[in-house]
Amino acid sequence: MSAAPSALPRAGMRLTRARRLAGIGLVVVGGPLGTLALVRLGTGLSLGAVLMLYVLMVVIAAAVGGLEAAGLAVVVGFLLANWFFVPPRHTLAVDSRDAVVELTVFVLVGGVVGLTVQLTAREQAAAARSRFGSQVLSRLSAEPVSDASVVGVLDEARRVLGMDTMALVRRGVGAPLARVGATPTGAPDLVLDAGADLQLVGYGPEPFAAERSLLTGLAGAAARAWDAQVLAEQAARARELAEGEQVRTALLAAVGHDLRTPLAGIKAAVSSLRSTEVEWSDDERAELLEAVEQGADRLSDLLANLLDLSRLQAGALAVHRVPVDLDEVVGRALLTLSDEQVQVDVPAGLPPVLTDPGLAERVVANVVDNARRYAPAGSRVRVEAQAVDDAVQLRVVDHGPGVPEGQWRHLFEPFRRLDDRSAGVGLGLAIAHGFAEAVGGSLAPSRTPGGGLTMTLRLPLAGRQAEPTPGETA
């Protein structure tokens, strides 16, 4: 299939000035030259044969220069044939009745041929315009409504119609809903209804009446694209509201549970300490105070995670990356854990990484804490690191139940717990993932050989040039 032209073919009512001049020049120059050749050769052709050659000149002139050139060709052919080939020669007098009839028929045939060629050219132009309009409307109709762009439809209309500006407006409202092209001045040259309260307006050369069907189709396409855009915006707002409601529901459910549990423990311990009916030993009193401290720590961690999540979602996280040794980051992150809880294999000779030390510590601490929640009782979480290409990879390995690969995409969603085997709001991995990306690294899950989940933190080496991350400060 041939490609559609980039602009609507113009109606065959006017030829370009260059073509009209070419047709006239062909008659003015070609007619006399052809006659001179016939006279010099002395072929002895009959007047009828000579006039047929002049009819050929009329056809060529009409095809090149239109009706004006064809009319001139009839006049020039009549004069040349009468002067050079009709007795008495070199005069415009005609002695023979047969010659008069032949010349008269030539004029009539030449005129009919010129008109026929002109009408044929117009019909061809109209057919080309019709095909082009059908192609444009077919392409717009075949395009999914969800992919249709109001600006794209308006630009298509402006391009194919050769107008300066196209706009979609609401009836009675000055400001356009969408516009392409230069800022218009004055009243529009074209106004078409495009729906219940929409109008398609154009500024520039007004299209011919034959183009109205195409304009009507383009107006309808613009209206459909606008309706689709409005529906898409409404659907997006509805999704945002639904997601917000879902997050609020999850937050209330998860945070409510995690708030009640430590608060209940703190309240029970404090009430026991304040009771005058029971005499507590020093060990019992210390145990109750430890329960209060643990509950307060849990509340502090929960609030810190919520604040971190809000900073991530608001894009307000301040990042300051510097070269740092990964073993120092890991040591500070796991400072409160014993060798019975975690096995660390992070060589001191690893090359420095470029990261924010504080945020990197939070990533390591959250990932290890998540691994410990699901690790079997009595087992240790393994933390190991090695340099790979232009980065250092830190792997946190557990041998717990693991996570099916089909659910890995949900691991980093806030307030998302994949099962009820562990307490927690479901923020640890979400925050770790956000912090990892904020410091220019990445966090990805994989299977642990023999069962379990391995989380791999990848941080760039300090020696390579790194792009600034969003929120990074100098």
Secondary structure: elements and pairs:
Elements: H1 17-41, H2 47-85, H3 97-142, H4 150-161, E1 165-170, E2 178-181, E3 190-193, E4 198-203, H5 212-274, H6 282-314, E5 322-324, H7 326-333, E6 342-345, E7 353-355, H8 357-374, E8 381-388, E9 391-397, H9 428-438, E10 442-447, E11 453-460
Parallel strand pairs: 6-8
Antiparallel strand pairs: 1-2, 1-4, 3-4, 5-7, 8-9, 9-11, 10-11
Helix pairs in contact: 1-2, 2-3, 3-5, 4-5, 5-6, 6-9, 7-8, 8-9
Helical segment tally? 9
Decide which structural class fits the backbone: alpha+beta
The total number of structural domains is 4
CATH superfamily of the largest domain: Histidine kinase-like ATPase, C-terminal domain
Lateral arrangement of strands in the main beta sheet = 6-8-9-11-10
CATH architecture classification of the largest domain = 2-Layer Sandwich
Mean residue pLDDT: 78
Any idea what the shape is? elongated
Strand content: 5-15%
How far the N terminus sits from the C terminus, by CA atoms, comes to 58 Å
Spell out the helices and strands N to C: HHHHEEEEHHEHEEHEEHEE
Tell me the name of the CATH class of the largest domain: Alpha Beta
Q: Please outline the major beta sheet.
A: 5 strands, mixed
Poorly predicted ranges: 1-5
Q: Percent of residues in helical segments?
A: 40-55%
In total, the number of strands is 11
Radius of gyration, CA atoms, in whole angstroms: 44 Å
CATH topology of the largest domain: Heat Shock Protein 90
